[in-house]
Target: Hydantoinase/oxoprolinase family protein
Amino acid sequence: MRYRLGVDVGGTFTDILLIDEETGQTFRAKTPSTPHDQSVGVLAGMRKAAAAAGISPAEIGQVLHGTTVATNAILEGKGARVGLVTTRGFRQVLQIARSYVPGGLAGWIIWPKPEPLAALENTIEAVERIGADGSVITPLDEDDLRAGLRRLAGNGVQALAISLINSYANGAHERRIAEIAAQELPGLPISVSSSVLPELREYERTITTVANGYVQPQVARYMENLAAKITEGGVDGGLYILRSDGGLASAATAADNPVSLLLSGPAGGVTGAIWAAGQAGFSDLLTFDMGGTSTDVALVQGGTARIGRETNVGDLTVRAASVDVRTVGAGGGSIAHVPELTRALRVGPQSAGAEPGPAAYGKGGTAPTVTDANVVLGYLPTELAGGEITLDRAAARTAVATVADAMGLPSVEAAAQGIIDIVNENMFGALRLVSVQQGFDPRDFALVAFGGAGPLHANALGRLTGAWPVIIPPSPGVLCAYGDATTSLRDEAARTYIRRFSELTDAELHGILTELAETAAATLEAEGVPRADHTVTFQVDLRYHGQGFEIPVPVDIGTFDLAADGQGSGLAALGKVFDAEHERLFSFLLGNEHELVSARAAVSGPRPNVQAARLPEGDGDPAAAATGTTLLYVDGAETETRVYDRTLLRAGDVIPGPAIVTEMDSTTLVLPGHAATVHVGGSLLIRPEA
Model:
């Protein structure tokens, strides 16, 4: 079976990409998302893509899926009722939290503190205590524990989280509690902190473990339902889920550790962008994924996405590895409104979603959206997704006219231009968060734009950031699905091990890293990936002794080649890397001794051998791809411009702006004063003509 199927479920559309691994040929499908049961949209898109390829679903070897089920459970507050077991004296660990209030100086006045994912009445204390060195100070009182678990059963908890103090150093008590809980609460999903997050800091470890339990039943049901649906659809291959860190996990592994899936969807886009930009010869890039509901941005350096140690979803922050993606509520479905109090135009974060969608969709929506503004300005053609979706220009004008009337603007076009300008500034702010705020100059990076709406706004974002070229990859509307289909299996193992460098040797740290790599490698071996195909990377969390926070630093394991005296140059090299990163982030260094906090190893399998398509050479003139002309309202004036069919373009063709380039899953706008060059790999490279 030589076909791989990538699936990305968004808030508005479900994107499907079927890849022939031998030829690199792709077949796309885009269907409306089905929020009531996402597997319905997935199955419909899968059948559609298989029909386009002229194959039977039985020829699909693997289904690789980026999912938002865990994310939506958090955002919508529809997770399980979680019971929590913690050490006696720490029952209020979630209520105390970190005493951090978002917002300005007066944020605490207006900020409604979110309710903990495990209620206080569903939290019990275990009589036990483990020391920070892993020694047993107070043995576990099993009789008292059983009584507490029975109370939780009476409260109707649907999942159980176990997080004891210092269990990162010794998880024996947690494992025993899990065994007892399986007897007292049979069939209940159990999350154990020493397995979910074996790291220092009791609050972060507890909230991450509780979040895992909160989404676990819903994710497990979805995985089971989806696996059954694709089997019914005739697919015999395995189901794999994209993790937040950009790696794949089997459906069973993902269901056991769903907290690692909270940014599954956005991670697929970053993975796909890295692959597409690499085909065009770029490895330093900003990714810009604009869909119907939100926009996700990330920074990639040297062909590798920055991996953060925290995942943020709504008001929830958990300690889980994820691609460092920032999200803003700006998408094609974002609603424009004019508050009565300020009379100032606002765009988002409210979205029209898939149902009823923008007014132009003709499904009953009446609120003005970004999509409606693009239709009014002529940037969007009246047919999308290969003619399957017809846009109602009159309805879009009627919706946007409400903004023009509320603001007293002279024309509907002026209101539409205002909507586009504001949403572009919102997305520019997100790009600054991953670049300028992290010490990077966006002008040193290319900008890769994708998602259904990304190519429409990409040229304008290039002007705002100075990031050139702007790269529009092939099939930009389904690039997240492309990322799902072109990534590899991955697992990670971590351990907290607090030592000052003077108390640590190269041999000791080398041994810890090697042991962690063995643990992660075993997971991939169980999935059938031989050791010879493993790629191992290492990372440690370091700080200056006395600091209250740490910085993740990559480890060059080669510097730990031990000399005859058993000491290499690994710790010295790590110290220099940490100093450089600390200075880049904070512009100063301290003289304190370096200190290790945690170590981790990540093991990845091989990326699939997917051949990139190659376009035939053209003569630089795109005239053969022109399909007509249209009127655009751009830079405050109406102008006539050519429309091009992207499937007819050839390598080397140069499209001067203003211009519209259409394809099945997206539309690209080239602004005046810019030109798009067609790369042999199929990407459009937009640069200023000057």
In short: Residues 490-604 form one domain. The CA atoms of residues 295 and 328 lie 5 Å apart. The chain has a mean pLDDT of 88. DSSP finds 17 helices and 37 strands in the chain.
